[in-house]
């Protein structure tokens, strides 16, 4: 597993604050990610700690597509807190890339939680050994609205692979990507998450299936320039 580009996961909140002092007895919504990833169980733990130790506040971890959607939920106040990749949070704050049409998000990071790792996963025995080898293959680039999708596009583009035309793209979350690779419906998938990620561990534990991770660390200099 190789970290590439910005790999920090931040805990974000609207810059102006979503909760007024008079509303402290209301429910607190934490936008996380899919159930097969790291955000959701981590968010569940944070929600429990808040609910157990702050009087009058009941926090709930919400299943979402991930980073991009979480930041949009914070912007429109559908969520009070959210998990986000640091590079996407920077894009959101400045209203660029995936947020160029949506507009700038007045969010701030309140904590850095852990280092994030970009995974490019296939099966042992596959002739895929680099990102370039994904050309004309069926590849999941992550769920729509996820940080995985943002990272996957950047990795593909840094390798000279057009994610719109050079691969047969599927847009699946972690659990769905694992199922599709196991069933032979896709050739590889991207996943951006912490270690360990439950869905990837489940795949590696499948009898008769051996995971092969494709190195992407060599792309770091190119990604840092983008």
Automatic annotation (TrEMBL):
InterPro entries: TRAP_TAXI. SUPFAM superfamilies: Periplasmic binding protein-like II (SSF53850). Pfam families: NMT1_3 (PF16868). This is C4-dicarboxylate ABC transporter substrate-binding protein. It comes from marine metagenome. PROSITE patterns: PROKAR_LIPOPROTEIN.
């Amino acid at each position: 597993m190789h970290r590439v580009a910005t790999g920090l996961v931040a805990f974000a909140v609207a810059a102006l604050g979503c909760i007024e002092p008079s509303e402290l007895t209301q429910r607190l919504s934490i936008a996380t990610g899919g159930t097969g990833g790291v955000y959701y169980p981590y968010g569940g733990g944070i929600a429990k700690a808040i609910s157990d130790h702050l009087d009058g506040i009941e926090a709930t971890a919400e299943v979402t597509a991930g980073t991009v959607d979480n930041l949009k939920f914070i912007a429109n106040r559908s969520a009070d807190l959210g998990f986000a990749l640091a590079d996407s949070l920077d894009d959101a704050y400045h209203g660029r890339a995936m947020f160029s049409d949506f507009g700038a998000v007045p969010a701030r990071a309140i904590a850095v939680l852990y280092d994030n790792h970009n995974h490019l996963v296939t099966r042992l025995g596959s002739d895929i050994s680099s990102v370039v080898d994904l050309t004309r293959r069926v590849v999941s680039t992550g769920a729509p609205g996820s940080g995985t999708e943002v990272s996957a596009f950047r990795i593909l583009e840094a390798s000279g692979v057009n994610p719109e035309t050079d691969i047969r793209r599927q847009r699946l979350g972690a659990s769905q990507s694992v199922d599709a690779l196991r069933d032979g419906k896709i050739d590889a998938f991207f996943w951006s998450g912490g270690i360990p990620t439950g869905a990837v561990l489940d795949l590696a534990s499948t009898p008769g299936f051996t995971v092969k991770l494709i190195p992407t660390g060599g792309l770091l200099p190119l990604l840092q320039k983008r």
